[in-house]
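Incident log, entry 3
Record: AzlD domain-containing protein (113 residues)
Problem: checksum mismatch between cached and fresh output.
Input:
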Amino acid sequence: MMGEFWWPFAVILTGAAATYIWRALGIALSGRVGTDSRIFEWIACVAYALLAALIARMIIFPIGPLAETYLADRLGAAVGALAIYFLTRNNLLAGVSVGTAALVALTWSRTIF
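Fresh output:
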């Protein structure tokens, strides 16, 4: 009976410990890794690759409400966002705003017409 009560807490504590061990290790090692080292370049490349993969997955294989939009609309909004991002000298806010507005406009225009 008592084992059933403590089981969820044990699972949560184990998961938290596993997460915080890696975070603590990252903090401990972060001061020893130079920003111009090869390992830092590799970490940056992996981070950019993960971000690119997540964005591609959201465009090509969306889930939730985004899955109800057309692929052409998602691609058009992404192309528009990238174009504005580069035209405004890497202004992330402008790129995201235009991409969002384009996706809303393209999706809305299909429901109207």
